[in-house]
Amino acid sequence: MNRIDQLFQNKGKDILSIYFPAGYPSLEDTLPTLQLLQDKGVDLVEIGIPFSDPLADGPVIQLAAKQALDNGMNLKKLFAQLKDARKTITMPLLLMGYWNVVFKYGVDAFLADCQACGIDGVILPDLPLEEYHEEYQAKFEAHGVYHVLLVTPETTNERMAKIEKAAKGFLYMVSTSATTGGAVEQSKEREDYFKKVASLDIPSLIGFGIRDKQSFQHAAGFSNGAIIGTAFIKALEKGNAADFIDALF
Prior knowledge:
The chain is of the alpha/beta class. The protein has 12 helices and 8 strands. It has an 8-stranded parallel β-sheet. It is globular, with a radius of gyration of 17 Å.
């Protein structure tokens, strides 16, 4: 069974997922950060693949990705870092990035390296569902790598039904139409959207704008848990990542 499925089967609620870009703040920080997050009780980690031209990332993640790239991070280096990660890391791991990087690396090589490193899933926001289904789904499934799909407040009911049918692992429920890092205002409209996604026959995690214990608990009330990225990256920059995670529990 995929580790993502195991997690949602065994825990189900209040799942904490953390996002950070590989190679940040320093090139060799990827594995130590993963170990810290596991030791602190984080359930799931999304490792960002730094990219120079992101679509949905706010300024904090953009700057962190640029620093990682300047440090020398790339996919080849990331897979080399993750080669022995499963000797100590047991929690589910996902890679999150943009399709251009994967396509340039080579889809077959990317999936083979994901499988070899024990990567459970990937999040590729700019890989269209139809293209994935027609050209790549069989390859992903052959390598046991889940393609985690996103929904947004603008996703139509018809589109959401297609996503629900194709989804693996969980749905990434984007809380807002803005980029990452902004505050998420509570409203009946937004809560209705959360409830609609939560009613689907697949687990969901809410991302964008989750920054502390209060916002995490609020989001987790409408889903299986939530994803924190920007706020954790700020903690990494300040050197108080451990304290930041402790404050979430």
